[in-house]
Amino acid sequence: MIDLRSDTITKPTPPMLEAMWGATVGDDVYDEDMTVNQLQQKAADMFGMEAALFCPSGTMTNQIAMRVLTQPQDEIICYNGAHIYKYEGGGLAYNSQVSTRLIHSQNGILHPADVSNNVNDDNIHYPTTSVVALENSVNRAGGTCYTLDQIKAVTTAARQHQLKTHLDGARVFNALVSTGDKAQDYGQYFDTISICLSKGLGCPVGSLVLSSHELIKKAKRSRKVLGGAMRQVGYMAAAGIYALDNHVARLSNDHQRAQTIAQHLTTKSYVLNLIPVQTNIVLFDLPNHDTVERLLAHLKNHGILAGMMDKLTMRFVTHLDFDDDQLEQFLKVLDLF
Ligand SMILES: *Cc1c(COP(=O)(O)O)cnc(C)c1O
């Protein structure tokens, strides 16, 4: 099977398993898992943040970040296709009791005017705007990336309005490899950053929320109440340390393969609105839902799984377990459609 539904489907490589197998562990609820502590410090240092907290999923790290940055009745500003709004089960309303101010953006990128035009005045009729949440890369917009300059501009606007800033960095390593920006430069612009180990980096599980010592202390309370405090989880943290050391630079291979797929798709008359590929996501529309179903079925018949983003939109995601031989086979199967 060739699986292009998501970069979450990867399995640990033999050396990653070896790193996991050899991990020193302890009870992380008592802060006694040295491997977790090491991963947390490593991730925080990498992004120029003070501290970090290891959690089971990216949904949890985003939800925890919103809990620590907001009060009930607040409002957060985000892209209308943001994961935090669209794909977390209504968690913002449920966990943080906040409303969302959705910004319609063609490529998912927010600009300073999106902030200044959407901050509510101090008036009891309006929710209190308190956070600007960005996503990089932007999943629903086809893996588009913010440059550091764009991040600086929009977060500076947010801070001028006394707003807090959050980055959903589930695929931030793809964005960093694509733009050439440095993780180290990100910390200064955000109050909280969430990063995922289980997407492009190829770990079986894990995500971290990065922030200040003070907010991470608060975050720990949120993680506990969400049921996300784990015990001898250093085995998973070891996979994370291995991935941060060995699986970041190689993301450019995934990006190259996504480019090749996109170039191939430009020759197909049924492909509409193909989004220029910047990372490992290929997103495009088909003329109608019937064609989507037929293409999915055709691929499946040839042992290939692909994703449907909505009725007309298909998604291919390249990853660690998709190599050049599979790429060649995939393009041949596309030609048979
Ligand atoms: C995958 C993803 C997450 C987190 O998802 P989990 O499945 O909960 O780990 C968060 N944000 C974005 C943009 C994502 O793509």
Question: What can you tell me about this protein's structure?
Answer:
By secondary structure, this protein is an alpha/beta fold. The chain has two domains: 2-6 and 249-335, Aspartate Aminotransferase, domain 1 (Alpha-Beta Complex); 14-246, Aspartate Aminotransferase, domain 2 (3-Layer(aba) Sandwich), CATH 3.40.640.10. 40% of the residues lie in helices and 17% in strands. The chain has 13 helices and twelve strands. It has a seven-stranded mixed sheet, sandwiched between helices. Helix 8 links the parallel strand 6 (164-169) and strand 7 (192-196). The model has no long low-confidence stretch (mean pLDDT 98). The chain binds pyridoxal-5'-phosphate. Pyridoxal-5'-phosphate binds at residues 57-59, 62, 83, 135, 139, 168, 170-171, 196, 199, 207. Residues 57-59, 62, 83, 135, 139, 168, 170-171, 196, 199, 207 line the site of pyridoxal-5'-phosphate. GO terms for molecular function: L-allo-threonine aldolase activity. It comes from Microscilla marina ATCC 23134. This is L-allo-threonine aldolase.
Summary tags:
2 domains, binds pyridoxal-5'-phosphate, 17% strand, Aspartate Aminotransferase, domain 1, 337 residues
Give me the secondary-structure topology.
Elements: E1 2-3, H1 14-21, H2 34-46, E2 51-55, H3 58-69, E3 74-79, H4 83-86, H5 91-96, E4 99-103, H6 112-116, E5 128-135, H7 148-160, E6 164-169, H8 172-179, E7 192-196, E8 207-211, H9 213-225, H10 234-246, H11 251-265, E9 281-285, H12 289-301, E10 304-305, E11 307-310, E12 313-317, H13 324-335
Parallel strand pairs: 1-10, 3-4, 3-5, 5-6, 6-7
Antiparallel strand pairs: 2-8, 7-8, 9-12, 11-12
The structure holds pyridoxal-5'-phosphate.
GO molecular function, one term: L-allo-threonine aldolase activity
Family: Belongs to the threonine aldolase family.
GO cellular component, one term: cytosol
